[in-house]
């Protein structure tokens, strides 16, 4: 599995190691990954992609584990992409989501992959989108993507999903406020996990009140669950299914994927241009020289930008 | 202007096979590797050989680092290696172990696929250096 061709062949034969390596290549932004995926893109889009997000420690992995069990009982093949933050200081990470899913580690019909947020130039969503395609090609019926819903890059990941489940916990009061911007908007279904703890009902009530303020066509339902005891999961899953059937009406599902594809393509363009710019900034664009001129007031930043753009796009072609 | 060069992190599965309930050592190693810029996949206590091999393959790790205290190293470690061989993954994955392993067992384990063994008291910096050198030597990144 050294070339795109040999890996593609192994992938088509359903080899697990080919899937694993393909995701590695995608994470490294290795062009071979995109070659494999572009040749097979027409065969993707079959899996149902569920995003599971929410604050740290809210029980996302525990819930994902319970969902895997449920989907396996239905005979589905399940993929999981579990994203944890990379330390911005060392570039390292401890990815610990598998701890809660060990029961499925030897199940051949479950493929779990941990990813660090790294410093992805093209955004985290580029690597996760590629990983989703890889698991889709592997024949996963459902793919669960777990992210800590904090930053913009993770909101972008949630956009790729067909349905995003937000996992909240009791007593989040202020944190709900903090998480509201951007993240609340992408939640299609909400659960208040740890409902064995005090204040769960109140949190659910506050969430509903907050969600009532949005005047979308879909008002996300809020369910109370206890993931560790698999309690309330029927209601939570029904809420997800209700959203799916709501989305299936008219061309909503198409529209959702269209928006996500558009977002993705624009993101790819942005990162390609950024990469191009940062590769050539020193020697071709002479950024330092331009900055010196601007500092001495011999040039203004706006004209400098025009110069840079002219060079960049003539070189890109 | 300084070039932002993002190296690809070394991926390490830190596993704790066997039945004993202590993962303090494994956690210390996990954090040290993270602080050295590696991506550590931590799977928790009481892992079977099958669970470890499967996780390593799905995660496409460069390294498996087993912390073992239970005394079952002579059966568990060779078993993990055998499972890797069945998937043809043994050449891609550096397999190391640490923990309470008597000196007389080490040659046998090395014959059965364990590349290096770190006994208690080994500073984490030596483990980090060993991993970085070995991965570089294999030209894996
Ligand atoms: N009391 C209670 N504890 C729970 C429940 N669900 C999960 N937990 C506990 O909450 C802790 C965190 O659970 P995880 O599933 O790892 O949470 P997570 O959101 O995946 O955490 P990160 O990935 O680290 O953000 C664990 O100790 C779980 O046992 C629940 O319903 N009730
Ligand atoms: Mg988790």
Question: Mind explaining what this structure looks like?
Answer:
The complex is a heterodimer of chains A (about 325) and B (about 140). Chain A has 3 domains: about 1-45, no CATH class; about 45-250, P-loop containing nucleotide triphosphate hydrolases (Rossmann fold, 3-Layer(aba) Sandwich); about 260-315, no CATH class. In chain A, about 50% of the residues lie in helices and about 15% in strands. Chain A contains 12 helices and 8 strands. Chain A has helices at about 5-10, 15-25, 30-40, 60-75, 125-135, 150-160, 175-185, 200-210, 235-250, 250-280, 285-295, 300-315; strands at about 50-55, 80-85, 95, 110-115, 140-150, 165-170, 190, 220-225. In chain A, helix 1 (about 5-10) crosses helix 2 (about 15-25) and helix 5 runs parallel beside helix 6 (about 150-160). With about 140 residues, chain B is of the alpha/beta class. Chain B has one domain: Cobalamin-binding domain (Rossmann fold), CATH 3.40.50. Helices cover about 40% and strands about 15% of the residues of chain B. Chain B is built from 5 helices and 5 strands. A 5-stranded parallel beta sheet of chain B has the order 2-1-3-4-5, with helices on both faces. In chain B, helix 2 packs across helix 3. The two termini of chain B are about 25 Å apart. The chains are: A alpha/beta (about 325), B alpha/beta (about 140). The interface of A and B includes residues 16, 17, 102 and 119 of A.
Mean pLDDT of chain B: 89
What is the C-level CATH assignment of chain B?
A: Alpha Beta
Helicity level of chain A: 40-55%
Please give the CATH class of the largest domain in chain A: Alpha Beta
CATH superfamily of the largest domain in chain A: P-loop containing nucleotide triphosphate hydrolases
DSSP strand content of chain B: 15-25%
H/E series of chain B, N to C?
EHEHEHEHEH
């Amino acid at each position: 599995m050294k070339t795109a061709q040999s890996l593609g062949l192994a992938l088509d034969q359903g080899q697990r190691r080919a899937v694993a390596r393909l995701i590695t290549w995608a994470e490294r932004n290795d062009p071979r990954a995109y070659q494999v995926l572009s040749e097979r893109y027409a065969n993707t889009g079959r899996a149902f992609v569920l995003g599971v997000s929410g604050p740290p420690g809210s029980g996302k992995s525990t819930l994902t584990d319970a969902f895997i069990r449920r989907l396996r009982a239905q005979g589905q093949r399940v993929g999981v992409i579990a994203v944890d933050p990379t330390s911005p200081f060392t570039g390292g990470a401890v990815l610990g989501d598998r701890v809660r899913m060990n029961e499925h580690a030897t199940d051949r019909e479950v493929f779990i992959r941990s990813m660090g947020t790294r410093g992805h130039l093209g955004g985290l969503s580029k690597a996760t989108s590629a990983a989703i395609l890889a698991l889709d090609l592997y024949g996963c019926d459902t793919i669960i993507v777990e992210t800590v819903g904090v930053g913009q890059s993770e909101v972008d990941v949630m956009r790729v999903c067909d349905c995003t489940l937000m996992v909240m916990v009791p007593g989040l009061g202020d944190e709900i406020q903090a998480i509201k911007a951007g993240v609340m908007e992408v939640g299609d279904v909400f659960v208040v996990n740890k409902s064995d703890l005090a204040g769960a009902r109140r949190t659910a009530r506050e969430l509903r009140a907050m969600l009532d303020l949005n005047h979308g066509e879909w008002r996300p339902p809020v369910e109370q669950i206890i993931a560790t005891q698999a309690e309330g999961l029927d209601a939570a899953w029904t809420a997800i299914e209700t959203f799916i059937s709501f989305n299936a009406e008219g061309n909503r599902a198409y529209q959702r994927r269209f928006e996500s594809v558009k977002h993705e393509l624009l993101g790819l363009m942005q990162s390609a241009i950024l990469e191009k710019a940062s590769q050539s900034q020193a020697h071709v664009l002479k950024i330092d020289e331009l900055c010196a001129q601007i500092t001495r007031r011999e040039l203004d930043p706006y004209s400098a930008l025009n110069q840079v753009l002219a060079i960049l796009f003539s070189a890109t072609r | 202007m300084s070039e932002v060069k993002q190296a690809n992190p070394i991926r390490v599965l830190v596993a704790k096979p066997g039945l004993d309930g202590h993962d303090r050592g494994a956690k210390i190693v996990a954090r040290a590797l993270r602080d050295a810029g590696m991506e550590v996949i931590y799977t928790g206590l009481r892992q079977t050989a099958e669970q470890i091999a499967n996780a390593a393959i799905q995660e496409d790790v460069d390294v498996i680092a087993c912390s073992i205290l239970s005394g079952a190293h002579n059966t568990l470690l060779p078993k993990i290696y055998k499972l890797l061989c069945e998937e043809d993954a043994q050449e891609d994955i550096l397999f190391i172990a640490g923990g309470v392993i008597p000196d007389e067992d080490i040659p046998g384990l090395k014959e059965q696929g364990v590349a290096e063994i770190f006994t208690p008291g080994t500073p984490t910096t030596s483990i980090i250096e060993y991993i970085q050198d070995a991965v570089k030597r294999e030209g894996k990144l």
